[in-house]
Every structure is written in C-alpha cells, then in structure tokens.
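Figure 2 data, in text form.
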Amino acid sequence: MARTGSSRRRAVRPARPHALILAAIVAGLATPAAAQPAPRLAIPATTLDRALTMLGRQAGVDIVSLDPGLARVRTPAVTGAVSAAAALGRLLRGSGYRAERIDARSFRVVRDTAPVRRAQPERRGAPVPRADLPPPVTTSADIIVTASKQRVSLLRYPGSLSTAGHAMPPGAPAPDLGTLARVSPILQTTGFGPGRDKVFIRGIADSSFIGATQSTASVYFGDVQLGFSGADPAIRLYDMAGVEVLEGPQGTLYGAGAIGGVIHLMPNPVDLRHAGGSMTAGVTVTRGGAGGADLATTLNLPLIADVAGVRGTLYRVRDGGYIDDAYRGARDVNRVDTQGGRLALRVVPGAGWTVDLGGLYQLIRAADAGYAERQVGDLARRSGLAQPYDNDILLGSIGVTRRFDSGLELVSATGLAAASADDLFEASRRQAGAGAPIIYQTQRTKRLLSHEMRLSRHGADGGSWVVGLSLLDNRDSQNRAFGFAATPMEIIGVTNRTRSASLFGEASIAVRPDVTLTLGLRATQARTDGDPSFRPRSQNFIAGQLTRRVDPTVAFSWKLAPELAMFGRVQTGFRTGGLAVARLIGRVADFRPDAIILAELGLRRLRQGPTGVAFTATLSQARWRDIQADLVTRRGLPYTANIGDARIGAVEGMADWVPFAGFDATLSFLYTGNRVRGALADTSLRDNRRLPDTPPIAVSGALRYEWAAGARSRLGVAASASYVGRSVLGAGDLFDVTQGRYGVADVSAWWTQGRSTMTLSVDNALDGSGNRFASGNPLILSARDQTTPLRPVNARLGVKIGF
C-alpha cells in the first residue's frame, strides 16, 4: 500500500502513473487535521493522482489509494482556503471515485459504485485524456521501487537503484538496453550487435563472448524472467512505463544469475476506462551510410469498462548500415531489421483480483556483422562472404494478483520464454587470391519456464515484508559447424538443463521512526545436467551438478532528514555451473558455480516539490570467486572456464537539478577499479588484468528545457554528452586489446501541439570516432585489429500522434 501526505513519513509514489498501485505518503501534522484552520491550497489543474499527492502535502493529511486508474482522470484547479474534505470533494466530483474517511486526518479513495460519469476536462475545449497521453512528470520523491517486490518507497529502499531512459525526448524511437547503456554509466555492453550483446551492471562483467554461462544481469519483463543465459534479446522498449536497474547482487529476491543486478522492464498496463493509442514514425539519415526508418503503433481498448481490456503494440525498425566490405565491393553491409509486437489482456473480476495475460515476440535480422578492420579503414573491412545473424524471442505470461483490504498483496507470475539465435562467422582473413571461405556457424535454442508466487505487505511506518516460492526450468542447446562454406562439418556442442526451486523472504522493520532494518534469506536447490550434442572424444565430464545455496541480505535505511537518507547493504549471489565446450575441437568440460558478496554504503536525497536537487552517491566493494567466463582460443573457437577471482571497488553518483520549472540538468558517473587474479589473467600486462568491457571511468550529462508556446503547444530542446574510458576485451594476453576512450554528444528539439509531437534529433552530433568494442568476429581475433566503430553523425525526423 502507498500513501500521499507531508512531513515525517514522506514516502513516494510510482515513477510512472501506469504502475499497478498508486502510492503516496505524506505524513500528518502533530495535531489532527480537523483541529486546524482550513489550509490555503494551490493545486493546479492536473491528473487525479498528482492532485491527491499535492493535496496531501499542502493539507497535511494522508490519502490512500490502491487504484491504478487515477492517472487517467483530469481534475480542476483548487485554490484558496479550503478544508481537505471539501478539496477532495471538488477533485473527485464526476471522476468515478469517492473518498472514505479513515480518521481525522486520513482518507481512502476508492471507485464509486454509482454509475460513472467522466471527469470534466480542465478547460473548455480541452480533449478528454486517453491512453496515448504520456505519463505526468514526477519528482524523484514520488518513486515506488516495484522491483523490490514490496513496493518500498525510494527513500526507504536500502540499496542502489537507477532508472533508465527518462531523458529521452518526446517522440524519440524506442531504445533497447544497448542504446540505454551508451548514456547510462551504470550499464555496460559488448558490441556484437543488437540481439547478441551482453549487458553488465556496475562492472560485474564476466566475459565478452556468448556461451554456456548464466547471465550476470537478470532481465525481467514485468514479473517474468526473459532469459537465463546468452545475450540480451534487445527488446525495443515501446509503450513502457519505465526501466528500473537494481544493482546487484540480488540473490535474495531474484536468485541465481542476478550477481550483477536486475533490469526490470515495466510495460504500461491496460487502461480499463479509456480507449486510445498512438502512432510513432521516423526516418533517419547517416553520413556516408544507408537510411533507416521506424514505425510503431499502440492501441488500448476497454472491452468492459473497469472490468476487462486489451492493449497491443506493433513496431518495425530498420537501422541502416554504415560499414563497407572492400573485398566484396559491398556498401553499408551492417543493416539490422527488427520487428515485434506485444498483446496484453487484463481482467478485473472484483474482490481485489486482477488477471493479466501477456504475449511478446520480436525478430531481429542482421544482414552482416558490424565490425571494421584498422588495416582497411575506419568504416570498412575485407571478408569473403556476408556474416549475418538473427535472434528471435517469444514470451507468454500469466499474472494473477489479489489485493486484500488489510494491505496484503498476493502475486502469482508464470512465464514461458523461447528464443533462438543463429550466427555465422568467416574463419579467416581475406587476402588477395584467397581460396574458398571457411565458416563457423552456431545455432542456439533456449526455453525458460519460470513461476513465482509471493505474498507481501507494506506498512504505514515504512516497514514491509515479502515471502515467496520460485521455480525455474531452463534448457539451453548449442549446435556448431565448421569448415568450407559449401560443406561445413558438425562439431561438438552442448545442451544444459537447469531446474531450481527456491524459498525466499525479506522483511524491513522500522526499529525507529527514522531507521529501517532489512533482513532477508533465500534457500535454493538447483541441478544442472549437461549433455554433448554427440558422443565426445573424451569422457572426462560431469553430466550433472547439484547446487545448494543460502543467500542472505542485511541492510539498513536511516532517514537523516525529510528528503535525505543513508543506506547500507551486504548481499550475496551466485550462478549455477554446467557443461560447456572445452579447448580443442571435440571436447567438453564441466565448469563450477561462481559466487559474489558485496557491501555498499550510500546517501540519497530526493527532490521535494517541482524544483530542487536530487542526488545519490554510493561506495561499494565486491569479491567475486571462481569467475565463470565464456572465452575463445587463439583459433577463435569458444570454450568456458573458471578463470579466477576478482575484487571490485566502485564509486558512483547521480545528480538531478531542476532550478526552475521546465529546466532539468542531470549528471551521472561510475568509477570502478578491479583486479582479476588467476592463471589466465596473469598472462596479461599488469594494467590489463581487469574485468572485460569495464572502463575505470564513465560519465554522462544532459540538459533539457521545455516551455509553453501557446495554449496547447510546447517547445523543447535537449543536449547530452557522455564519455567512456579505456577498457579491455578481457583477462588474458589474447584479450589485451584496448577499446573505449571516446566521447559522444547528442542534441534534439521537439514541438508538441495537442496530441502530436514532432522531433528532430542528431546523434553523435560532433561526428566523433571511437572503438566501442574490439571484436566483431572472434575467429580472427588474434589479428588484433578489429573495431566496432561508432555510427557516424546521423539525424532523425520523427512524429508521434496520439488518438
């Protein structure tokens, strides 16, 4: 449950109005509200969720609601000396909601059982709000950490958390996680291309290559897990309420594979009251490259008002190529086409029950690899044939939620994800007079069935708890072929199947009004069985592994002032082991589980009101044992091994300053120092014995200003810049290859007229060059001259229309 109000118990509401529970806490005054003179209110015409938040703060009362639809209702302005009860009456008149008095200073807002009348627009001629409207701008003090599974307010949350993508201009094309990583220092990524990149959080990076190991960062779509191992599927984030990044490890709440953290993708829920939608389209031009385009549409349709509805999204995106192949005489070979869609059905039968059915699909088709070779040119290479790849994913989910009058919440979430990926690489460098090309092909199929059931409650004093059960069944198969392009021969691959069951619980106890202590525990039993694709030449492997783990959490939050809190946390995490391809063709071998423990201490300040400063600063130290890593040999063939141990220290910070309405300045950075110890790492130069793809320093900053240009028009401009320091491809002398050390600047401008927005954005506006990633074809890595260049300066003209 969440509330709105002011003073000592100030908590927060969801960062987006589409979250399932509107939360607002504003603490009461020392004397009952009824005993006070009518407060002077200044509440502008806005949406109902925001109006209730402002009323609670200005009148010093608590207003509680569990309804997700408040953000879709417009309210009139309320000004002057008005009692809280009278102001509530004005705000709720004709809205379909009513207020119930709890006590002298507390109210509950619920749906009115009388026939619903649509709320009046805020002014004559103004359109009735619909599902296409963007969520209202919120302050950082209004965030509920939904990924904590307890709906804890951000000020009370005892850990590092960031939101991604909030600075995107209106009407911009939907990013994927790889795009967000380029402007968010807390995220790192490889550069093989959308659909086959790995994403890391806060420098917890195992290797640059894809193999049998479980991912270090768990990606969730709503309440269900998208994948277990392999690359990030690069879901295009259309029609999303937000993206939360919980920095890891998150072993207590999320189990194996969350050693780096959790990325929580939050789609907009179905709106059961208003029909509407939007359409976005854009064209992109790139200096010296091919053009691109994007098209997306979203439609929300109530089937039975307040009972059932559907919401769907379809999209198609083409990223034009910009790399030439000098040997084949082909231009702009690295084109990527993405198409996908989502469909959600929500049913609210009553008595606190909500049922959500969802489906998602996405197909990525890349015409060729996206790397260049220094000997050929900054944006060119030589290869004897195209090296395409594709990545497909399907996800189906069933979610059932029951909210009780007592404040309890029961959640059951079941998901089935199926993915496949095909890759082709040329196995030799092209030279004049070279013979028939030799290729290396991989085919991977994955199937993940997951289920979680949990019960939680959030108390008014800041305390909360959650207990749950989690079940998982994952199957990951890899087949490989190597040889001449016309007649490649199958070589050994592996299939891993992991089944796990976990019981978990976490409780936050308010030991004092300003101090919350959090304790948690997760008990896991996991078994991984591995089989080669055909009988191996060596029988020296383990067909099954059983892992039993207990992952604790100890954390605290200390509220130093109404807007300022200190937090600290100690938590562990792990990844399961399995069977993987070993060195040399025709061998397989077992790799062991790895484990991590992290301690962090941070300070968080939230902005109260429309202007001011919000910031977070965190120190952390981690120890990572028996690191699993997917690597390649000098011939470029993959294998998996435990490479040693690492210590990782990090300092990170984020600041958000709004000096006056409409202007926003943000700055974020990550500084990390790490050292890998092990036989492989010891072959590197001393300064290169580092975790892969993790620069010591990464910084990003942005300025944004938006202002009214008429009764229904707004103009806006934004500029951002980021810098990525030097990193290496991995631990070991083969991977002592420098990458990074570049900066990028972007600018954009937009014009909003009613429900339509036109946007002009220029990425890499200074046309900078840089090597994002020092590989694109692992089979020729030993030549050590591959680069993954930045896309040259490119401009997009886009439009978004709501209806």
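Caption note: The first helix runs from residue 48 to 59.
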